[in-house]
Amino acid sequence: MKTTFETRYASSPQAVKKYDTQELRDEFLVPDLMQPGNIKWVYTHYDRYMAGGAVPTTGALTLETIDPLKSDFFLERREVGIINAGGTGTIIADGEEFKMLHKDALYLGKGVKEVVFKSDDANNPAKFYMNSAPAHTAYPTKQVAKAEANKIELGSLETANHRTVNQMIIGGIVTTCQLQMGMTELKTGSVWNTMPAHVHDRRMEIYYYLDIPQDQAVCHFMGQPQETRHIWMQNHEAVISPPWSIHSGSGTSNYTFIWGMAGENLDYNDMDVAKITDLR
Ligand SMILES: O=C(O)C(=O)C[C@H](O)C(=O)CO
Ligand SMILES: [Zn+2]
């Protein structure tokens, strides 16, 4: 079992204007979070937000601290949200067991010392997708099933953006310091997420795409609304959205994505929406 991490530093919109395809992918695409038998983290310098993947197979995996945190244990000064993007598994947090079905979420607050991940079936392992942000208060652990999410219906089939936003780790359901997470599912025939697009300079965000059928892909759009770029994404890949960037995508089929964010506020609706016809 191995825990690895990489660091992503923050980029300015002026610098990103000049990036070619590979530079954009190197800075913002996170292609390899889900590694069987391992835990992988990306530590970003956007709000010190982290995205990770834990894929237990035949053995259990333990959440370990990593060097940039300079802490005795991972959640010493952090909180984490976890959504299972794979088969059924279990998370044991300081001795308390949580059965995690596909698309179940779990919030663990500051101070939880020991976190263990297990899969029911090594051939169909749990894929625990994790987002973590610095935390200054210890809030209670809470599990949230998809059925318990706050559901928002957006878009329409006519504009190919009919989708359900499942707000899972959000005020009213879970109390957090700064983390918000949820999962948006596109209806069959709809391909556009987060259109009209928005920025929220007060919060960074990461999208993790799943349920992309074989041989299909999602074209993720980023950049300032007047200066957009795109990154082609495969199933189970994540993409970092700087606070100044739109984060939107169009697929060659419908799909699901997990969004997670942190920053200045906990107001999900604090978005500066860009008019579709103003995008460049
Ligand atoms: O489909 C959408 O619209 C979303 O899911 C938007 C994300 O939740 C988001 O970007 C929140 O800031
Ligand atoms: Zn957003």
Q: What is the name of the CATH class?
A: Mainly Beta
| CATH topology category name | Jelly Rolls
Low-confidence stretches: none
- Based on CA atoms alone, the radius of gyration comes out at 18 Å
Number of strands: 24
- Report the average pLDDT across residues: 98
What is the percent of helical residues? under 10%
Each distinct ligand: the ligand O=C(O)C(=O)C[C@H](O)C(=O)CO, zinc ion
CATH architecture: Sandwich
End-to-end gap: 45 Å
How would you portray this structure in words?
The protein has a single domain, classed as Jelly Rolls, CATH 2.60.120. Helices cover 4% and strands 44% of the residues. It is built from two helices and 24 strands. It is globular. It starts with a strand and ends in a 7-residue tail after the last strand. Bound molecules: ligand LADIRMRS and zinc ion. Belongs to the KduI family. Its EC number is 5.3.1.17.
Task: Summarize, please.
With 280 residues, the chain is mainly beta. Helices cover 4% and strands 44% of the residues. It has a single domain (2-278), classed as Jelly Rolls (Sandwich).
Keywords:
single chain, 280 residues, mainly beta, Jelly Rolls, seven-stranded mixed β-sheet, seven-stranded antiparallel β-sheet, 2 helices, binds the ligand O=C(O)C(=O)C[C@H](O)C(=O)CO, binds zinc ion
